[in-house]
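#dry-run=false #mode=assembly
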Amino acid sequence: MRQFIVIGHDAPTTDEFSLDDLAGGAGRLDVLCRCVSSGFFLSHAIREDVRLFLVLSDEFTIRFEGSELRRLNPDERSTAALVRAALTAREEAIGHMEVESTPGVFVSRRGFVDLLDSVAGTVIQLHEDGTPLPESEVPENPTFVLSDHHDFTEREAELLSERADARLSVGPEALHANHAITVVHNWLDTDGFANY
Amino acid sequence: MRQFIVIGHDAPTTDEFSLDDLAGGAGRLDVLCRCVSSGFFLSHAIREDVRLFLVLSDEFTIRFEGSELRRLNPDERSTAALVRAALTAREEAIGHMEVESTPGVFVSRRGFVDLLDSVAGTVIQLHEDGTPLPESEVPENPTFVLSDHHDFTEREAELLSERADARLSVGPEALHANHAITVVHNWLDTDGFANY
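#status=ok
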């Protein structure tokens, strides 16, 4: 199982946004939608062994479960519609209990700390100053933590320095989060670039 | 210079499409917009050494020139707006002459054959059955040719088997074109995964 946590600092917490304005009125939901797409899509299939969490402004967490996902399309707008449906269902989410809004998409009232408490496996922070991917062992059941277009906040960075098992870098260039996810998948798909 | 040619088989050839329906009424323009985004974006910069061509239904070619690009944003919708502006300017494009529609974006009446005739450098077809990236030399001035969500047509495949200098594979999984571009950039950024 490959898990990704994407922290959205500039993300909607209500369903009152227009699908026509994802990079404006919806904060930067476009960034998060691209991460979902990179997380799950192969050319002719969905990666069923992936679980991806979007943390929305440290208030809600949306879980996308690869093995159960339906109605996911690669374009930003349709992914944003799934996020909006999850935010419509947020009213029913009590405590940390999840509510399934569409098949394979779950919403809960959880911020980053609570989410991190709940994940198992190796926690890996993706970071420009981390160990280059080829110099790292390929982890089993990794959980990669990424930030959106903003840096991790001081609090998130502190938490990760305590809790992350490793810090890895996806190359000499600083990449967008969705591109970093694609590189990580490629690294895992090829057993660390060894069985390409 | 890194060049990419993305062949859009299901792409608009007029500006009469809605930005609200990129994955429907505009053919699959969403696929091509994601390729543009993967082609150019770094976290805090645009890759100025990149030139990317979109071939629209073998009728028009739009050239995005990294060193001159302005107004490019990573979301699909705003990239589609640049494509639409280019298609509005298509009326002024006579023969193979290009017209600049917005800074760094040029449109011409050219299909794939004419475009391929005009590019210099090493032509590389990205293909599932190609040589794995790590087993290939890192080319200077490569031009990567990719197809959208459809396979290359028989005619395109024939042309590429004659004209391409190499066929490379981006891993054991068949990837979306935009994800393949990201992997290729990572490979080039790291001198073939060697200087990660």
